Amino acid sequence: MIKRALLVLLVLSVGLSPAAAQSKAWDILREIVLVPGVSGHEGPVADFIKGRLPAGFKAERDAMSNVWFTVGSGRPHILFVAHSDELGWTIDRITPEGRVRVKPGGGILPQTIEARPVLIHTAKGDVAGIVAPRPGYDDRPSQGEVQEEKPFTAESFDIFLGVSTEAEARALGVAEGDTVTAKKVLTDFAPGLMATRAVDDRAGCAALLDAALRLKPETIKGRTVTFAWDVQEETGLFGAAELAKTLKPDYVFAIDTFVSTDSPLESKRFGFLPVGKGAVLRSIDSSNVTPKTEIAKALAIARRRGIPIQVGNSRGGNDGSVFLAGGAVDIPLSWPGSYAHSLIEKIDRRDLEALTDLILAIVSDWK
Amino acid sequence: MAQRGTKIVAIVLLLGGLAGAARAADIRTVTKELFQVPSTTGNEEMLAAKVRGLLPKELPVETASLGTIAVRLGGAPGPTLILAALDGYGHMVSGITPEGYLTLDRPVPPPHPRFDGYLLGQPVVISTAKGPVQGVVSQPAMHLLTPERRKALVEGFSLETAFIDIGVRSEKEARAKGIELLDPVTFPAVLTELPGQQWAGTSLGVKAAAAALIAVAEGWAGRVGGDETVLAWAAQTKFPARGRGARPAVGAAAAQSRWQPRRTIVIDVVAAGRGDGFPFPGGGPVLIQAKDEPSALRRALEAAAAAAGAPLQVLTAPGSPLALPFAAPPSEVITLALPVRFLNTPSEVVALKDLEALRDILVRFLQPGGAK
Question: Which CATH superfamily is domain A19-86+197-365 in?
Fold first, then answer.
């Protein structure tokens, strides 16, 4: 009986890919994606990451909440970096009626949070609110009347907290400077395929954390490898800029979303790397052009290891570009992500696990 | 002996009060249970089944046309009808593209022009015969958005550019998940609990009003006396009958035809919290009449509210499609509505004290002498 069970286990373990057998990236992602961390307020995400790093790595954390660790010594110095911040809002003021107004920005289509729940992250804990629909939202134009719609913007909306005075709002703990995120809903299309807010770049964070957990330092010989989770990417690559003051890598692999046009609304003219078809080498984006020689090197490593890989160009920037001026080569790694910067950023588990495998393969094989 | 009788009555009243207190907690649970069940016009069967399951077993449930269900509370003949809706606004699957994306339509006209716009970039649930299927309504990626595309796909969002992604690559795969044309599409039931005992969620107003009527049936079960009353949860109340002039809700017209009530209380929802002239959330249920004039039904409801210690707001407004079929003299109709902030948005806000007041008024109204 025991022999039979062992045989079944053996067959199963042979049948599973190394990634599926070992990677915890998917589970990490489903946890970390729910941790609030609007740009400039990434402390809880930094806590999450630092709390899960293997004790053997000497992790550092700076005042901005950048987190990193370095293993090995010598050249080349290879840096992997994912950003821990997410899109969201900061409270600008509280009105006499107890409504909350936010500062401009956010990075998400404001229309998609109209009349939707949000969470305000206060010193006393999270407070739920509803983004009020635009005034007159249910007015019906009379016959022949053309209704001119006012734009719905971060500057124009307010958040209803269920109270009617500023004092009541403050009693909840709400204050200027608190951050606001959309209430996150995980849409599970199928096991291993989901959509939610903040996959950008918590998937990168999860991939890097998973790779750190699976990292075997003995594979790094004569080289230096740094894993970093940096802050404030969405608002201007500020965390990466801070790291660039001290870290002088030869190669930087930024781990971030590939803005895929795998969507019914996008032209397939470029960026059409399908979700579920593997990790991505982001050859050209709005901030970087990766030399073809480096793309070829990365492709060769992936193919040698049997890691599904796609190459494409799209839009958006990446943290690695900050290190270009210091002499680094930026080779962004990604997963194909549909609906970037939305409440429904889509990701496939296979792509995420391929990405972690690719990170580990590069750690081991990159020359 | 007389003294003992008084004591027994007092104990019965006390127990009745305790039962009432227990029910006060129940209406919240019932509302949460109903909130979880999608229900759009023409697709009310899941909610009807849920209501049926929550009703006291000693009250036989009648099924009327269109899927409307009702219970009859015993008493002297001469039906009083108390009618709530089963259906909320929503969408349905209108097609499946070769790539496996779903297209959308509405079973009924939208409550306002902005209604479809709330779909953009949102998670949705498709209720299929095989069970719920999760999906998202596509939106353009922010990085690829030119001003022209923003105007067309965001500001100009309509059902023409609404595609549901359910994570498949072909029509065949979509059908294998159970997707069929006409399957209802709704937002996930995510309840947000706000300070001040207020809840927010999609179609919450209709679900809460339906829950109030269940609580009334629970409060009634086992009693005798009063007038015969039909409590009905009507299907297809958002679908207007065809024809010229005022267009009554089909579900309400069918209920009128079946029960031909002498007097009707329509339990509805009303937009609240929009400033002067609008009902105030937390100010109590709203008594709505087409004309501000005294009537026996209005007096009875006002007396019931006073006896229940429940606040009541009064609004004069044209007859709603739900009330229209019952308005022909000598019948009497009044709408008792739950004030809802952000009505007909994905986050309808209901004050629980309004909901409990609605239940208390109706319970008192149905007690012997309460409807006189």
Answer: Zn peptidases (3.40.630.10)
